Amino acid sequence: MQSQSAQHQETPHLRIFNGTEETQGELAVPELEAGCSLETVLTAWHEATVRLEQTHEILQSEVRRLNEELERKNKELALNARLADLGRMASHVAHEVRNSLVPVTLYVELLKRRLLENPGSLEILTKIEAGFTALDVTVNDLLNFTSHREPRWASFLATELIQEVCDALKPQLDAQSIQVLVEVEQSAQLTADREMLRRAVLNLALNALDAMANGGELVITAFEGPHGFMLEVADSGNGVNHNQLEKVFEPFFTTKSNGTGLGLAIVQRIAEAHGGRITAMNCPEGGAAFTIELPARQQLKRMAA
Asked: What does the record give as EC number (predicted)?
C-alpha cells in the first residue's frame, strides 16, 4: 500500500480515466487496466505529450494571428485619427478659400465683360479664370472628402445620371477627341443617393479623361447583376502601374503632377457609404477600369428604411 501511494505521488499530473479530453490542465491518457506494463504507461504518456505539443502549436499560431490583427487595427486607428485631424483642417481651409474665391470670381466676370473688344487681354483673363476653376475643383474635392453625411436614398434611372455626367463633360470630351460609349439598359434603375453617385461617376470620368490626354475611348457600363448593381468606367489610356493598383484609393496618393489624390478616395467613401465597394483593374486590351459595386436593391431598400 505504501509503495502504491509513493508511486502515485511521483506522477501527480498523470490522470487515468475514460476518454481523451484534458481536464483542469492535466493530460489525459487512454484508460489503463490494472497491472499494465511500463511500456503501455510510457506509450500513453507519449501520446498525451504529442497532443499537448500540437495544442501548443495551435495556440501559438492563434496568438500570432491575433497579434497581427491587433497591429493592423492599431495602424488603421492611427491612420483614421490622422485623417480625421487632416480632414478638419482641410475643411476649414476649403471654406476659407471658397469664401475668398466667390468675390474674386465675380470681379473676373465683370472684367471679362469690359474686355470683350480686347482679344489679347481677354485671352489672359481666360487663363486666370481657368486657374480659379481648377482651384475651385480642389476646394470641392476637399469638402467632399471631409463630408461624412449619410446617403439620401432615392430611386432613379441610371441612364439619366450617366447622360447628365456626359453632358457636363462634353466640352472637355470634344477638346480631347474622346469617344464615349454608354452600355446601359434604359430601364436600369438605381436605389442610392443620386448626388453622391453622380459625384462618384464624375470623378471616375475625370480620372479617365486625365489618362487620355491625346484622345481615346471612354466606356461606361452599368447593369444589375445577381448580387447587386455594377457600374464601370473604363478608359483606353496606359492603365495603372501594377504596384500602384492597391494604393490608388488611398487619400492624397496621386500620380498626377497637379492632382490632389482625393478623387478616387471620395469615390471609395461614397461606395462604402452605400454598403458597396470599388475595385480597379487594368483592361486586357489596354487602359484601366474602375467598378462600383452596390448591394442588391432589396438590401439597399432595407438600409434606406
From this structure: 2.7.13.3
